[in-house]
Automatic annotation (TrEMBL):
Protein name: Bacterial surface antigen (D15) domain-containing protein
Main localisation: mitochondrion
Domain of life (superkingdom): Eukaryota
Occurrences of domain Bacterial surface antigen (D15) (ranges): 24-199
Length: 202
């Protein structure tokens, strides 16, 4: 079956004129649907769906919505009980739920970067930042679109905020962040604490 997939990625950097501070903001969205007769009655295949979470910097992430800092990779969204769970497993990813992804994904971020007071950091390009992230996944197929409303869409967002240090290199961008989960849902895999991030520089 053919698939209809659309994505958009809007971002803007605003220099603030002091301490090399800049405000980066961005909104990412994507939708995927099976295309053909009765397509809204048809379920989406999991490999075609979108998943959110992970530790990639939203400032550097291109190609649609993926990153929500503070949440593990594929760590938020719709879930269902796993059919088989290993009794001897202690891994959080084996907690008895499978993450199903979504047909509609939206993420947004705001990131304020600024120089650190020590000259040695400024010379190396090491700087600080504070950020806020939000993300939502929704199911549209199998007639789920009938129950979509503005309130339900708003309530589906998970949010996080934090601050950290950015270490840029020629090969990658490393961040050491303290992430605070502002809003999560019952089965989401995310927690407040320190998170390391490695991303390709823009």
């Amino acid at each position: 079956m053919p698939w209809l997939s659309k994505e958009f990625d809007l971002r803007h950097a605003l220099p603030l004129g002091f301490y090399h501070a800049a405000l980066n903001i961005g909104v990412h969205g994507a939708i995927v649907l099976p295309w053909g007769s009765g397509f809204l009655n048809t379920p989406s295949f999991i490999p075609e769906k979108f998943f959110l979470g992970g530790s990639s910097s939203p400032v550097c992430t291109l190609g649609g919505p993926t990153s929500v800092l503070g949440f593990k990779s594929r760590g938020l969204g719709l879930t269902e009980p796993r059919r088989q769970v290993r009794e001897d497993s202690t891994d959080e990813s084996s907690s008895g739920r499978d993450f199903l992804g979504g047909d509609l994904a939206v993420t947004a971020f705001a990131d304020l970067s600024f120089d650190l007071p020590l000259k040695v950091f400024r010379q190396a390009g090491i700087h600080g930042h504070a950020f806020a992230c939000a993300g939502s996944l929704m199911k549209l197929t199998e007639n789920a679109f009938r129950s979509v409303s503005f309130q339900r869409f708003r309530d589906s967002f998970r949010t996080s905020a934090g601050f950290g240090i950015v270490v840029p290199t020629k090969l990658f961008r490393m961040e050491v962040n303290y992430c605070y989960i502002l809003k999560r849902q019952e089965h989401d895999r995310g927690k407040t604490g320190v998170q390391f991030s490695f991303s390709s520089p823009l």
